[in-house]
Amino acid sequence: MGVSIDDVAARAQVSTATVSRALRGLPRVSDSTRAKVLEVAEAMGYVPSPSASGLATGRTKTVGVLVPFVDRWYFGHAIEGIDQVLRDHGYNLLLFSLGGYVHGQKRSFTKSMVRKQIDGLLVLSLGLSDEELHQLHHTDIPLLSVGGPVEGCPGVYIDDIAATTAAMDHLIGLGHRKIGYLHGGVEDQRNFRVPALRTVAFEAAMDRAGLQVLPDWSVPGDFTVADGVRAAAQIFNSPAGLPTAIFCGSDEMALGLMFEAQRRGIRIPEQLSVVGIDDHDFSAPAGLTTIAQSPWEHGRTAARMLLAELRGTADSVHDTMMPFELVVRTSTAPPTR
């Protein structure tokens, strides 16, 4: 068996996390400790990657990006923003795609990351288990979430409570009292906090206005156009009748709802007002009123922050709230009296 990082730590009489930081050239390791770790590692023949060429600096010039999907609007734009910043600074992007929200042994991504020796990790819209966080913190690489809060690590995201509240204030301010809701599915809410935060804000806004949340008008989707169509059909077919407005937890679901409304001859906004969140590329052509955010800028901000941490800037990785804006288009209007 080869020499492990634990062997180096034992010989150097430091923690494995200190060995990891010293070999990667990360900050907050004293010069004397770093020199001692490098000397012990070289003497023992420890190689942190398939090639020994990175031993002197401990850097692979590679940042990992972990995503549940690669074909969704938010993820694609965030990855593009991350990649642009990394390329500008001579770094590579290593993508870890889970192919959806999965659990258990299928999410053994941390071992691959350790083996491939990435210098840092960005986690996009995905909650991490205690064991996964423990493994990642054990390697002591900089860790940052993008798109929503992740317990155990700082992140770059919008205030989803405030964003949802802005959307609801718009609808209620127009005079709507019969409001439906297309929200994230069970798997979304189990794996990530954003859908649940938007649900909490929706229900709170309805309660403040003295409005009833009807189960027939509160339908789960999967943040896709296809599921927006399916969820819209469920609301339109409900015995409760047609609401005058629907808030959608993503623009993709809202666009699907608008397609289904058009197919049924339901006029927007005369009979039904629709609001989404994102400002998807197709939202402006569709006339969709939405809460606009910029995943491209989220990715750029997170990448710059992570690189600053790798350069040793003090307190460079921290929670960062990004801006959002209510963009009013033609999909919303006062309800018909």
Describe the structure.
By secondary structure, the protein is of the alpha/beta class. It has three domains: about 5-55, Orthogonal Bundle (434 Repressor (Amino-terminal Domain)); about 60-155 and about 295-315, Rossmann fold (3-Layer(aba) Sandwich); about 160-295, 3-Layer(aba) Sandwich (Rossmann fold), CATH 3.40.50. It is about 45% helix and about 15% strand. It is built from 13 helices and twelve strands. The protein has helices at about 5-10, 15-25, 30-45, 75-90, 110-115, 130-140, 160-175, 185-190, 195-210, 225-235, 250-265, 285, 295-310; strands spanning about 60-65, 90-95, 120-125, 145, 155, 180-185, 220, 245-250, 275-280, 290, 320, 325. The strands form two sheets. Strands 2-1-3-4-5-11 form a six-stranded parallel beta sheet, covered by helices on one side. β8, α11 and β9 (about 275-280) form a beta-alpha-beta unit. The longest helix has 17 residues, at about 295-310. The radius of gyration is 24 Å and the shape is elongated. The chain starts with a helix and ends in a 10-residue tail after the last strand. The model is unreliable at about 50-55 (pLDDT under 50).
Fill in the keyword field for this structure.
single chain, 337 residues, alpha/beta, 434 Repressor (Amino-terminal Domain), Rossmann fold, 3 domains, six-stranded parallel sheet, six-stranded mixed sheet, 44% helix, elongated
Question: Could you give a quick summary of the protein structure above?
Answer:
The chain has 337 residues and is of the alpha/beta class.
